[in-house]
Design goal:
Elements lengths: L9 E5 L3 H12 L3 E5 L13 E3 L6 H10 L2 E4 L6 H8 L3 E2 L3 H7 L2 H10 L7 E4 L13 E5 L9 E4 L2 H10 L5 E5 L5 E9 L5 E3 L3 E6 L2 E7 L5 H17 L4 E11 L5 E9 L9 H4 L4 H10 L12 E8 L15 H6 L3 E5 L10 E9 L2 H13 L2
Parallel strand pairs: 1-2, 1-4, 2-3, 4-5
Antiparallel strand pairs: 6-9, 7-8, 7-9, 10-11, 10-12, 10-14, 12-13, 13-16, 14-15, 16-18, 17-18
The protein binds adenosine-5'-diphosphate (ADP) and magnesium ion.
Length: 383
């Protein structure tokens, strides 16, 4: 076992979005120094980091400078070029590994890994130029680009196989997967933190509601029976172990009807980083997913993941909130959210609101998950 990276060592974060911002803030609280690499001078994490390297993710010189400054580098998005992670890994400890990120950033590799490991996924086919596969998916389906999709981007819902091929052509015949459109009972996620020496922790299972492919609402603990929750956690830990994952990993799960009508779990996708459905941990867990990311990447002790409230709900605040019906832009009425005793307002410091852009979120704690969800939605409507 290698020695842990301890404060005041420097932790690097590849990517400067809101996830990186919280990782930087968590590291700073623990006494680490921080470096962020992101091409955007206004990146939410860059402005709070000790140092912000404003450079492209494949800028060799900037990556070398980052490696020289840092004792460990972690990532906050799934799309850093594999070559950049490999370059860094040759010079400095990198967690998660380039291999784990490579699996999670390509839906074809991800599904091949999951099925190869014996983990359940829904029916799908890879759509690649020259692929000769016999289609398993023939009815209503979703075509998803294998790479670079997020928040429902790079996806097309189609009625049948020929429409799927048409959509694939429209998407420029880039590598895609076509997935059978599933009748979802609900969606869950499990967030796992794991260290090099195989210690791991998870948080209570979250239930997620998406609108237009974007996460809208997360409630914890998910209103599901204990047996299903245990299975969900078991699947997520199995994924982390099979990937020999180091850092924080989010596993998105679908609940569908099994052959016998009982609940069945399928793995939807992996995020090799903290996840939007874990933002509640900032306000309602002994240790947040971001603090745990730093602890795990550093090989230090993992914090307890007990909830500090009976239940919590998180609603996203998208750029749409800034626009009125006529398209005029104005700042939402934050006073309402700040006045509510059980609510926490988070804004990521993004200057330009755009429809569908994640600008912030609200977390509400309450005696039950249903109460928390109702209150969070109410508060958001009042903004
Ligand atoms: P993203 O990377 O954009 O999060 P996902 O694959 O997770 O992409 O899809 C976003 C959302 O779209 C899911 O959370 C789910 O609500 C819906 N969705 C995705 N795939 C399917 C499917 N095969 N059947 C039904 N709904 C799906
Ligand atoms: Mg998703």
């Amino acid at each position: 076992m290698t020695d842990p990276v301890l404060p005041p060592a420097t932790v690097g974060v590849l990517g400067g979005g809101q996830l990186g911002r919280y990782a930087v803030l968590a590291a700073t609280v623990m006494g680490y120094r921080t470096v962020v690499l992101d091409p955007d001078p206004a990146a939410p994490a860059g402005v709070v980091a000790g140092e912000h390297l404003v450079a492209a993710y494949d800028d060799t010189e900037a990556l070398q400078r980052m490696a020289a400054r840092c004792s460990v580098v972690t990532t906050e998005f799934e799309n850093p070029p594999a070559a950049s992670l490999e370059l860094l890994a040759a010079l400095v400890k990198v967690a998660p590994s380039a291999r784990a990120v490579a699996v999670a950033q390509d839906r074809i590799a991800e599904k091949a890994f999951l099925t190869g490991t014996g983990l359940p996924v829904g029916p799908y086919d890879a759509l690649t130029d020259g692929s000769e596969e016999r289609p398993r998916v023939t009815g209503p389906a979703i075509v998803k680009t294998a790479r670079l999709g997020y928040d429902g981007k790079g996806q097309r819902r189609v009625a049948d196989r020929s429409a799927a091929i048409e959509a694939w052509n429209e998407l420029g015949r880039v590598d895609c997967v076509v997935e059978a459109l599933l009748d979802l009972r609900t969606e869950l996620s499990v967030i796992v933190a794991r260290t090099t020496d195989g210690r791991s922790t998870t948080w209570p299972v979250a239930e997620n509601t998406h609108v237009d492919g974007i996460l809208d609402l997360t409630v914890v603990p998910a209103p599901i029976d204990d047996a299903l929750a245990d299975r969900a956690v078991g699947l997520a830990v199995a994924v982390a172990e099979a990937l020999d994952y180091v850092g924080v990993l989010a596993v998105e799960l679908f609940v569908v009807a099994g052959a016998d009508g009982a609940d069945d779990l399928l793995v939807n996708e992996l995020a090799p980083r903290p996840h939007n459905s874990g933002h509640w941990t900032l306000d309602a867990s002994s240790t947040s997913q971001f603090e745990q990311q730093v602890r795990a990447a550093c090989g230090a002790g993992l914090g307890p993941t007990t909830m500090s409230a009976p239940a919590a709900a998180m609603v996203n605040l998208l750029g749409d909130l800034w626009f009125d019906d006529g398209g005029a832009v104005s700042e939402p009425r934050w006073a309402t959210a700040l006045d509510a005793a059980s609510a926490k307002l988070h804004l990521y410091g993004k200057t330009e609101p755009r429809p569908g852009r994640k600008m912030g979120h609200l977390t509400v704690t309450a005696p039950t998950a249903a109460d928390a969800a109702r209150r969070a939605i109410e508060l958001r409507s009042a903004l």
